[in-house]
Amino acid sequence: MDLFHLQEGYRAGRFVPRQVAEEVLRRISERSSRAEWIYQVPKEELMARADHLESLDINLPFYGIPFSVKDNIHVEGLPICAGCPGNESISTTTSPVVQQLLDMGAMLVGKNTMDEFATGVVGVRSAPHPVSPINPEYIPGGSSSGSGVVVSNGCVTFSLGSDTGGSGRVPAAMCNIVGFKPTPHLLSSEGMVYANKSIDCIPVFARTAIEADYVFRKLMVGNKAGCLLADLPHSQNDLVIAIPDEKGLKFFGDTEAEACFRSVLETLENQGARIQPIDFSPFSEAGAMLFDGAFISERFDSVGEFIKDNPDAVNEVVAESILKGEAVTHHQIWSDVARLNQLKVEAHQLLAPFDCLVMPTAGTLYRCDEVKADPLALNRNMAYYTNFGNLLELSVVSVPGRMRVDGLPFGVSFAGPKFSDYRMLNLAKQWERISGVQPGDACDYDNVG
Fold it and tell me: CATH: 3.40.50.720, 1.10.1660.10, 3.90.1300.10, 3.30.365.10. Which one for 3-435?
């Protein structure tokens, strides 16, 4: 399902969209389950879309490319419940980003499972919930859990998630794929069930950085903000990289994760990069504000009334987290906004001398039963390196960094200030070429054609 393989195959006449759609359905039946899909486009509708594409220009950017979306993104005529079946309705509009992809020839396969109301980064707050495609005892990452898994196991070429505090990056790390979270508001976030509307953004999941880069760049065509993006080429041999200082680095007792991160840094240094620790406290302080500060009130504004009216329909941990927002005062909101503005200045000043900030996507990973036994503390640990990303207006891409000794994946993130999106993707592509890590769930998948 590699994007460029499909493009080349279409243009060479080796296969047509109907054959790719049939292969998608075969893969879903063999490699996927109901746990990853809230809704699948019926076979006859998917085939009709495939047949229609044969009347269109084969050079459309996404001609016949299969993709899926997280189930908090609206697609007209399709059900949407944001991970909570009791909240289901039929969408009357389509997200502008989804519409762009459809207009450019993409084939929508379905909508993916997510943590209820996009609350948390663990991926087990839905019923049924997906599991790691690499080891089913482990979490898939969330809240875009299904969107990460179906890319990892090769059922679709790419998928769209949502990212508030890490939901476009933690699933990528847990599923051994790429998750790119753009600068907030570069891509339209209209047409979503929001977690935090002021900072929510739509990330791209793909097996490789070069595919994620292609998807993002095509979505940016005609975008007036595109002129703001820095696209300066860099090579690893002249990079100046920031990393969290020793006080800021946390692996929560996971020595294998720490060894993987040290190995990533060693590889970068061997390529000529210069690495310097920076004060990580502005980042960690900002991250703590997402759930422990006044910003939780924005989640309550989005879905709080539904939760109050339907307490038995919502995951207990999700409900507890969101309902805290009802008690937030206006004074607390403006106080936190003022503090966050200070932290933005501090964080961007710290990043200014560097090409990027390199950090673990997650400092550890957990089994599903561990998270269910201690949901709040372990979710907080998983989000330590991600919660601040949108609050501080960063561009971040998570890529496979290493495979651990125990066979589980370790993801590493390249982060930069707002509008450094192309630069972060370029760095991710360079890392991909030198890391030696094969993406996905390590199966030897056959190619269409």
Answer: 3.90.1300.10
**Contact at 8 Å (CB) between 153 and 443?**
yes
**Residue 193 to residue 170: CA distance in whole angstroms:** 20
Question: What contacts 103, CB < 8 A, 6 or more positions away?
Answer: none
Average pLDDT over residues 349-363: 97
Q: Is the Cβ–Cβ distance between 177 and 400 less than 8 Å? A: yes
Which residues are part of the catalytic machinery? 70, 143, 167
Q: How do residues 88-146 score in pLDDT, each as one tens digit?
A: 999 999 999 999 999 999 999 999 999 999 999 999 999 999 999 999 999 999 999 99
Q: Which residues make beta-bridge pairs with 412?
A: 360, 399
Within 10 Å of residue 349's Cβ, how many Cβ atoms? 11
| Cα–Cα distance for residue pair 286/336, rounded to 1 Å | 10
CB-CB contact of 51 with 96 (8 Å): no
Q: What is the pLDDT of residues 252-271, one digit of tens each?
A: 999 999 999 999 999 999 99
pTM exceeding 0.90: yes
